[in-house]
Design brief:
nine-stranded mixed sheet, globular, Purple Acid Phosphatase, chain A, domain 2, alpha/beta
């Protein structure tokens, strides 16, 4: 799939003090090899390398000064085996090296591009090989660009400094919306989730004690949850039936955001769907 030929735009652009920043998340490179253990007979990361090439196309189109990958560059997967055993299976050396070579060739050799990667829960081995050429940030996140940006993956609570950022961007969720047509056929579409939340509420959201004197005023902070950049992967349907406390229970950190009455949903072609609670 050539990124110039479709409207499924799974990346975000921001400008901070003259720095043009391109955001993507959840590439899950190596995911195609997992399917080898689930009936798809491939031992090569062909689709993962296609994802890398698509990302290069988008970078050359946007021409950013920085690329920020908000976690899960790698796909560290599980394959169920005998009885109760569910071992972690990491990428083989051959597959890992093929992915690293493609990432270095297609992304890291782009002139003038600074690459920043947050460690996600799937990132186990690839980041260790990229510390010499990328800025690696822990999963708890970090404020960047003079505190204009706070980035965090989303599976664990961030460092407190994130609360004071002018904007927060994260991944992890792979949000999708499920729509039903007139023939009762269900269709799933990746989405962005957007919320403007009072900074005071961020303290309770991330379970920090509220210190009003540190922020001086209760202003609104924009939060954006990005869709997975990997168009081969499915996601988490955010408008599932059920609701109440049971809804979104597998995402404890993000659950308050998903339950917020003002959470907005936007499709990757730019169509605004309005509030999640109305869908």
């Amino acid at each position: 799939m050539n990124s110039d030929q479709y409207l499924d735009r799974r990346w975000l652009v921001r400008n901070y003090n003259g720095n043009k920043v391109l955001f993507v998340t959840d590439l899950h490179l190596g995911f195609d090899v997992e399917w080898f253990g689930r009936g798809l007979w491939t031992t090569k990361p062909s689709w993962s390398i296609e994802i890398i090439k698509n990302l290069r196309d988008d970078i050359l189109k946007v021409v950013p000064s920085h690329l920020v990958i908000c976690g899960d560059l790698e796909h560290h997967y599980r394959i169920r085996k005998i009885k109760d055993k569910d071992p972690q299976i990491s990428l083989s050396n051959e597959i890992r090296e093929a992915i690293l070579q493609a990432f270095r060739r297609e992304i890291l050799e782009i002139p003038g591009l600074e690459v920043i990667i947050i460690q996600g829960e799937n990132d186990v081995t690839l980041l260790q090989e990229l510390t010499d050429s990328c800025h690696i940030i822990p999963s708890e996140g970090k404020p960047l660009f003079n505190n204009q940006l706070g980035i965090v993956h989303g599976h664990i609570s961030p460092f407190k400094e994130i609360v004071f950022s002018s904007e927060i961007i994260l991944g992890h969720l792979h949000p999708e919306i499920e729509l039903v047509d007139d023939l009762q056929i269900k269709h799933r579409y990746p989405t962005y989730l957007k919320l403007h939340i009072a900074r005071e509420d961020l303290f309770s959201l991330f379970q920090f004690p509220f210190e009003f004197e540190e922020i001086g005023m209760v202003d609104l902070v924009p939060i954006t949850i990005l869709p997975t950049y990997n168009h081969f992967l499915s996601g988490y349907v955010i408008n599932i039936a059920g609701g109440g406390k049971r809804r979104h229970k597998q995402y404890p950190l993000l659950r308050p955001i998903l339950h917020h009455p003002d959470l907005q949903v936007q499709m990757t072609d730019g169509i605004e769907l309005g509030r999640l609670i109305d869908l």
